[in-house]
Amino acid sequence: MKKIIAALTLMLAFSINANAQDKQTSSAYDLGKKQAAELSELLGLDATKTENFARLFEHKITVLEDINLTQERKDEFSRVVEAKIRAALEPKQMEKLEKNEVLFKKLTH
């Protein structure tokens, strides 16, 4: 009987931990999708570019939430994200994004 209770307790503990990790992942995913939608709304991007940006922003959020990274590494990663955004957009689109400083900073940091 004790073994059954112990096994159930361990199973419950691991399932709660797994659910917590799923929520964090979906949270970064949701935030990335939201940021990509804001960018798409501003610039009128197609579905493929919007999805690519959603993955980029999800990755950015996941990396920047890492508490083990130094501020210098986070700043460098933000510069890389900015470079990827610049490479994916046309010059006119980039000008329009740079004029919206609040959104530009939100997307790169």
Give structural notes:
This protein is mainly α and 109 residues long. It has one domain (27-108). Helices cover 87% and strands 0% of the residues. α2 packs antiparallel against α3 (71-88). Residues 1-20 form the signal peptide. Keywords: Signal.
TL;DR of this structure?
By secondary structure, this protein is an all-alpha fold. The chain has helices spanning 2-43, 47-64, 71-88, 91-99, 101-108.
Q: What features would you highlight for this structure?
A:
single chain, 109 residues, mainly alpha, 87% helix, signal
How much helical structure, as a percent, in the residues? over 70%
Helical region count?
5
Q: What is the arithmetic mean of pLDDT?
A: 86
Largest sheet: none
Distance between the termini: 53 Å
Strand content: under 5%
Shape: elongated
For the record, the count of structural domains works out to 1
Main structural class: mainly alpha
How many DSSP E strands?
A: 0
The stretches of 5 or more residues where confidence is low (pLDDT under 50) are: none
Query: H/E series, N to C?
Result: HHHHH
Radius of gyration: 19 Å
Helix-strand layout with pairing:
Blueprint: H1 2-43, H2 47-64, H3 71-88, H4 91-99, H5 101-108
